[in-house]
Amino acid sequence: MARPTTLRGSKLLIMIGDGADPEVFAAPCALNTKAFNRSASTNDFNVADCSDPDAPVWTERAKGALSSGITGSGTLAKESIDLWEEFFEDVDSRNIRVVIDYAVGPRTYQGKYHMTTFNLTGEQDGLIQYEIELVSDGPVDVVTAP
């Protein structure tokens, strides 16, 4: 069996667009743990067997809607706090890129997201930690630009 080519967690980047033209994307400093999720909702339908109406019915499912979410956490960097605060307070969604950087070229997902959670925690003898959560606002596409 051939060994798989694995990727380090540092190769998963969450990049926030600045809204300029042309738009510049940057990965906030110290976002250490990142997760990118794509999901689909389904509608369930119970379909009876026409030749045996007393038989148990089978449930069929139709895919209804697609969605995406991003979560992350890390040690709060002074260089990123204004970006996070502005994003959280913004009523408009922002362009986000999720980049998986691998040897044959990156795979990039791009779409608009709202920031729904910005959580700060700290301990007396530690560093301030933060958690973020983003939810998609419309389609998230695979794009060729890194």
TrEMBL record:
What domain of life does the UniProt record list for this protein's source?
Answer: Bacteria
| Short name of any one Pfam family annotated for the protein | Phage_tail_2
**InterPro entries from the UniProt entry:** Phgtail_TP901_1
Question: Mind telling me what this protein is named?
Answer: Phage tail protein
Q: In which organism is this protein found?
A: Microvirga mediterraneensis
